[in-house]
Design a protein that fits this description.
There is one protein chain. This protein is mainly alpha-helical. The chain has a domain of 147 residues. Strand 1 and strand 2 form a beta hairpin. The chain is extended and about 60 Å long.
């Protein structure tokens, strides 16, 4: 009985301490942890988002053009899949009168104090920062729709970067275990419908099962508006 008495007494002491802390601690405001639930029906929220979409896209386009040179200047060098050229030139725009040589000759503190750091090196906000979530280029949306009949298009925003500044799609797949095979994707998008045909005999059964799970559509994975501030699909080439 004595062996059970000590743990019981310790648990009681901990409970008393926790209770006393809970009584004396200042409660946190509810909005620091939980986001208020929507008060409008989804149909109204959707209609508002659709109405605001042109203005949202116009604002983001102006921001991108202010920070970057978005012109299409392809090099003769191709990306690793050989399907899309790499873009040429420095794309970050400088403030009026500034030059790269001038910035190179300045101390970091001077650049900071004079606010000369180019905007293109600062964090780039999401096309709809308050909402966040993944935004897919049209070429990806169309291919997923064609192969899997899943529509990843958002009603509130579109992808904001020009197609010539995005990585090639579908992305090539190179296996470190079989470098001699080159791009094992054969230039196609890997999906739940074709992965076994492409990978049979070149990856292990365990890897095959992991790939199957990865490519199986789910409610969370197929959502176009997860709770993330930025999507990996929105990349700068």
């Amino acid at each position: 009985m004595a062996s059970f008495a000590r743990p019981a007494a310790l648990a009681a002491a901990v409970s008393i301490v926790m209770a006393s802390v809970g009584v004396t601690a200042d409660p946190l405001p509810p909005d620091t942890t939980y986001r208020p639930l929507p008060t409008l029906p989804f149909s109204a929220v959707k209609a508002n988002d659709e109405a605001q979409k042109p203005k949202v896209m116009q604002r983001q386009s102006a921001l991108l053009n202010e920070r970057y040179d978005l012109a299409n200047r392809p090099m003769r060098v191709m990306m690793s899949g050989g399907r899309k050229p790499v873009q040429d030139g420095v794309r970050v725009r400088l403030a009026g009168g500034a030059t790269w040589d001038g910035l190179a000759g300045m101390a970091p503190d001077a650049i900071r104090d004079r606010n000369l750091l180019p905007e293109g090196f600062r964090p780039l906000p999401h096309v709809k920062q308050a909402t966040g979530g993944q935004v897919f280029p049209d070429v990806q949306i169309n291919e997923i729709q064609r192969q899997e009949q899943r529509n990843l298009r958002r009603f509130d925003v579109d992808f904001d970067l020009p197609d010539h500044l995005t990585p090639e799609f579908p992305a090539p797949i190179f296996l470190t275990t079989h470098p001699e095979l080159g791009d094992v994707s054969r230039g196609q998008l890997l999906t739940i419908k074709n992965f076994y045909e492409f990978m049979n005999g070149i990856i292990t059964p365990v890897q095959m099962e992991g790939l199957r799970l990865l490519l199986t559509p789910s409610r969370r994975r197929s959502s176009t508006r997860p709770r993330t501030a930025r999507a990996p699909t929105r990349a700068w080439a």
